[in-house]
Amino acid sequence: MDRQEALTATPPGLRRRVWCQECGRELTDPESRRRRLGPECDPDTRTSHTRHDADQDPIPGL
Ligand SMILES: [Zn+2]
Q: Does pTM surpass 0.85?
């Protein structure tokens, strides 16, 4: 049984590892890896889809 060790090639399924520039944690989600910043260190919050709808128009006539 002769098997060649293909250590030169990147193992399939293993992507390039990216760490947070701020705290050094490994980033797993694509958005964080692209920014090289973890969600906890990224000043630009991206997960908050909740907005404060404080200025909703009151329905007149009720
Ligand atoms: Zn971080």
A: no
